[in-house]
Amino acid sequence: MLLAEHFVKAPNWTWYILAYFFLAGLSGGCYAIGALLRLSGRPSYEKASRVAFLAAFPLIIVCPLLLTIDLGQPSKFWHMLVDSAGGGLNFKYWSPMSLGVWALGAYSGFAFLSFVGELLAPVGRLLSGFLGRLVLVLGLVFGLFVGAYTGVLLSVSNQPVWSDGWPLGGLFLASGLSGAAALLLLLIPARREEMTISLRALGEADRYFGILEAVLIVLFLVTVAAAGTIGKLFNLVGVLLWLLVLVGVAVPLLTHSRARSFSPVPSSLLVLLGVLALRAVVIFGAQS
User: Fold this and answer.
1) At what angle do helices 96-119 and 46-61 cross, to 10 degrees?
2) How many domains does the chain have?
3) Of 12, 196, 240, 271, which is most buried by a Cβ count within 10 Å?
């Protein structure tokens, strides 16, 4: 078997980047789910979409802070946006890092508008017509981009594992959507009669996202195995993390119920733990 060659030194990312990947995926997933629920026009989904928008912005607003801390100097993050020499915008369409930073900023803006629209009635009325639908659609697109971007950023690097696994973008997106559905199941009051339909829809969505995530995990492992770097993912810590990933994917598929008395808390917490474990094993496995 011809093994893949890698030339770039490992970036030595710490838990700051892990937290960024985790929170960005959840935020993008929450906004995407909220936008789809709101765009469906069903009154029964209205309160669930409200919860999604109220969760999306606080999750994403932490991410620039985490990136700044990881860079070590706040000016470095600023220089990713502004050209310090020429004074213009530092936008490089050919650079995945530059695209990601600008997409993160654009998405944060849409998430902020939707967040404020849920809190302030005048803004909410302004966003109730065509302008509101436009914000939802654009926010949905950027939310999905942010959810997938972290995986794509890894796959276009020249690191072992990361560059060997082309499904990473789709995998992180599916994982983020699954985690977002689980988070919303935790945040939405389960005992309110009017929320029953939303809870059932989120439970169904979580199952479908989990199935997609499982398929992409298999594809990812196959591609990494073909490159000869799969061993980096299965040291002692890696095996434990993969067990958490497996539980996080499998448990919701087995335990989500249509019964009104069902509590989604245990399975949702396991999903979130699995989402975090997946990012941990991928990020730190390549650096081992």
Assistant:
1) 130
2) 1
3) 271
The predicted-structure confidence for 54-112, as pLDDT tens digits, reads as follows 999 999 999 888 888 877 766 666 666 666 666 666 666 666 777 778 888 899 999 99
Contact 51, 199 (CB under 8 A): no
Look at residue 216 and tell me if it is in a domain.
yes
Domain with 45, as residue range(s), is: 15-285
CATH number for position 181: 1.20.1630.10
Going by the DSSP 8-state scheme, the letter that residue 163 receives in this structure is T
Considering the domain boundaries, does residue 8 fall inside one?
A: no
The pair of three-digit structure tokens given for residue 60, joined into one six-digit string: 């994403």
* Alpha-helical regions (H) of 62-167: 63-71, 74-79, 96-119, 121-126, 130-155
* Contact by Cβ (8 Å): 177, 29: yes
Residue 150: inside a domain, yes or no? yes
76-82: Cβ within 8 A, 24+ apart: 81/105
